Amino acid sequence: MAASTASTPLSLSSPSAPPPPRLQAAASSSQCLTFPSQPALNTSHLAKTTAYCRKIGRSVVTMATGEAPAEVVTATETPEIVKTLQQAWDKVEDKYAVTSLAVAGGVALCASAGMISAIDRLPLIPGILELVGIGYTGWFAYRNLVSTPDRQALIQKIKDTYNDIIGSS
Asked: Which distant-in-sequence residues (6+ apart) come within 8 Å of 58 by Cβ?
């Protein structure tokens, strides 16, 4: 099989129609279509990006080798609440049940928020519920907060409930 070394010019239009003016100038000078020149790159942005990528690369390499980067060596102490939560989590025997309850609580919270949002969109219901809430608040205040013995009984009931939940100290 012999290969032909002669090349044939390619045409973008039909042979009977004249080429468009843009392509005619390129065809007459025996040049192909050229791409426009690329805009000049912002070298300061390029330098910042390169330096940032190198910094990340160094952190990854040092962590992979087991060496701690300089920023991690001066780590701050964990807050007291985190330590308390870790100790409480370590004391829990049935972690599966606690996790399941937490997930169920999150789902219930989302469902109740959706239900309240749907009720709030109904035309008359929010106003009626607001009046019911104001009425109940007034009744509760009249029954439990107006006189001193009722107020002391309410405070004692709250303290007893608190001790039942938390445990006697």
From this structure: 69
Whether the model clears a pTM of 0.85, i.e. scores above it, the answer is no
For residue 69 the two structure tokens come to 């980067």
63 domain-assigned: no
Q: For residues 10-21, give the mean pLDDT.
A: 53
Do 116 and 132 belong together in one domain? no
pLDDT at 38 (0 to 100): 67
139 vs 143: CA distance, rounded Å: 6
Number of domains in the chain: 2
What is the per-residue DSSP string for 78-121? PPHHHHHHHHHHHH-S-HHHHHHHHHHHHHHHHHHHHHHHHHHH
Instruction: Name the residue range of residue 89's domain.
Output: 77-121
